[in-house]
Amino acid sequence: MPMPRWWGHVNKRVFNPRAVASGKWPVLIHVGRRSGATYRTPMDAHPVDGGYLFVPVYGPGADWVQNVLAAGSARLRIDGEELELTAPRLLGKTEALQALSDDTPRPPKLLHITQYLRMDRVSG
């Protein structure tokens, strides 16, 4: 089971603003599918061939996942650079883990992550 949703609400209001302000974490910048507001969500962004892989620890129904899928794009601020990402899609565990390099840490098994979000980097 992914992380409990109540923990996501705590993260959203307490820890995420601090992580974004610190500048130490990659930040996914996405637009709300209902509100149209711009959101900044700190997360692990794992580089894969031609793009990035994200671990939805709150499951594929998490707001940020649904926002990115609805918009079809997002931006990623990482290492002081802002990248355009496109073509979001959910991948199964086997396909997602095959895309990661061998030295990339895997999510803890107790989270039972079964779907991952993959996005392609826009060239240029």
TrEMBL record:
One of the record's GO molecular function terms: oxidoreductase activity
Domain of life: Bacteria
Signal sequence, renumbered to the chain: none
Record protein name field: Deazaflavin-dependent oxidoreductase (Nitroreductase family)
Species of origin: Nocardia mexicana
